[in-house]
Recover the amino acids of this structure.
């Protein structure tokens, strides 16, 4: 969705009235009406082989939003005296620039290719004084302090099946990743070259480690940390891109544009999953007039939501925080249609009082699911994990395990992975309270349900009773050769059916209550059936 043009006289009144200190510049979003003479083929040259492969795998074609921004337009804007180019966005068809003199844009009032100019933040012109820093089968003991949050969503089952995020690329958007390049918990990712890209969209450049903000470090640890018997994250073998998009000094609209630019970069390098634990609803002075209204929280209107939905259209699985506003509602882009929006619960699966919830303005259920964040454990500058509360901590857990699930189900599209996660969550398809959405995901069930090819026959779909108590029966047709086994939710074999006349039967008296999967193998294929024991 393109940002619509606003009346020029309104824009210019707003631009001229902005006052900044001698050490600051105003940041503007300048959107363009078109992309010049470029064809769709130019898009292919701007994307990595990995990015194109991700799209090809999901049968996603190139679109107008993939065409690079028309460089002559950018050059004309950035050539104006006092205008500094920060970055561009092909998805928004815009450039983000700063200037100490707002009135300079009066020169552009009759420029044919410009659609709109919007002030979105301020930026300091002082140089930063911060310096660079020098650069599996698991159980409760193995995961250490990460066990409760891992086991709550049965992420350990994915690891037990060998899916720890290998060859999956996760982009994390946050405020900074201080100490990630020197903390032992991140050694395996850093020293093995699995942090493949970094970019600081707030300060510029590629340094994301030098500032003293650790929120991003906390978030990243829930995915990537790898200290067996102390703390093991959700996808400890994945590849990562780390992007600073959040300015902790202010709450300004530019941060949403930073998010879009970061998501574009994630797309261009071939990221599979994007995780962000930042969100927005109101802004600091002088940008209160751009506060997000209730009507704009419809999943498709805010700049941040547009970015999320565009990323999803490119085949990326996007996981976003619901925010910590409680009954005050969601933060954008947690309202986005395409996002897996995450709330937080305690270890008893009770929703946290500050976990934001909807539905969004389009009546779509948000959050979609919840994970542990009351508290969830993290690890940062010290080697001792500690508890932190909030949806910020629940969100990256879901992103990490979703990457592991997708690794195991690589033939599926991003939207199919999202649906698999939702359909195997505890309250699907009937949410019982808005704070929980579809409940707590069960990544083990998600994998076991989808991994076995579904070749349905009239015979093999008749396992009964379901729900069951003391026994299970499977009728077989004359001459049909079948084998049937029962597995619990962890993937452990709990019994093999025995042939009795024209049926296969299994005594289940000794089994505990819960969810099971019956795997049926025959000459015509394989089927997996979800069963429930009282």
């Amino acid at each position: 969705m393109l940002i619509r043009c606003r009346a020029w006289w309104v824009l210019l009144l707003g631009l001229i009235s902005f006052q900044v200190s001698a050490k600051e510049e105003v940041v503007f979003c300048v959107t363009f009406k078109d992309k010049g003479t470029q064809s769709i083929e130019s898009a292919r040259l701007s994307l990595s082989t990995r990015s194109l492969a991700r799209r090809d795998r999901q049968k996603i074609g190139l679109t107008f939003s993939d065409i690079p921004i028309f460089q002559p337009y950018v050059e004309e804007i950035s050539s104006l005296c006092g205008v500094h180019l920060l970055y561009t966005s092909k998805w928004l068809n815009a450039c983000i620039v700063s200037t100490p003199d707002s009135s300079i844009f009066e020169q552009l009032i009759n420029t044919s290719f410009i659609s709109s100019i919007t002030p979105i933040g301020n930026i300091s012109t002082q140089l930063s004084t911060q310096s660079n820093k020098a650069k599996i089968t698991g159980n409760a003991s193995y995961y250490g302090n990460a066990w409760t949050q891992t086991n709550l969503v049965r992420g350990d089952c994915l690891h037990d099946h060998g899916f720890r995020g290998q060859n999956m690329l996760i982009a994390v958007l946050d405020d900074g990743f201080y100490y990630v390049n020197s903390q032992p918990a991140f050694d395996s990712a850093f020293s093995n070259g699995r942090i493949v890209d970094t970019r600081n969209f707030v300060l510029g450049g590629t340094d994301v480690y030098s500032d003293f903000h650790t929120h991003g470090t906390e978030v990243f640890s829930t995915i990537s940390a790898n200290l067996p018997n102390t703390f093991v994250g959700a996808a400890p073998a994945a590849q990562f891109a780390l992007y600073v998009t959040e300015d902790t000094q202010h709450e300004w609209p530019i941060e949403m544009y930073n998010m879009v630019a970061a998501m574009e970069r994630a797309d261009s390098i071939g990221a599979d999953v994007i995780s962000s634990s930042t969100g927005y609803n109101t802004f600091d002075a002088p940008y209160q007039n751009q506060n997000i209204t209730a009507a704009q929280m419809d999943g498709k209107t805010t700049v941040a939501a547009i970015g999320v939905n565009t990323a999803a259209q490119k085949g990326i699985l996007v996981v976003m925080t619901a925010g910590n506003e409680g009954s005050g509602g969601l933060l954008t882009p947690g309202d986005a249609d395409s996002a897996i929006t995450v709330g937080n619960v305690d270890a008893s699966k009770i929703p946290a009082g500050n976990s934001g919830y909807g539905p969004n303005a389009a009546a779509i259920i948000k959050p979609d699911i919840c994970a542990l964040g009351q508290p969830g454990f993290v690890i940062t500058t010290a080697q001792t994990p500690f508890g932190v509360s909030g949806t910020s901590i629940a969100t990256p857990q879901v992103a990490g395990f979703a990457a592991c699930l997708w690794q195991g189900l690589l033939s599926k599209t991003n939207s199919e992975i999202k649906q698999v996660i939702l359909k195997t969550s505890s309250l699907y398809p009937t949410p019982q309270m808005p704070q929980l959405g579809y409940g707590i995901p069960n990544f083990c069930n998600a994998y076991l349900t989808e991994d076995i090819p579904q070749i349905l026959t009239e015979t093999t779909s008749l396992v009964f009773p379901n729900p069951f108590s003391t026994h299970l029966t499977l009728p077989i047709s004359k001459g049909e050769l079948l084998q049937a086994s029962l597995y619990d939710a962890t993937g452990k074999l709990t019994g093999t059916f025995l042939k009795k006349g024209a049926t296969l039967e299994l005594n289940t008296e000794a089994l505990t209550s819960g969810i099971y999967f019956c795997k049926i193998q025959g000459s015509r294929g394989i089927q997996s059936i979800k069963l429930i024991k009282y």
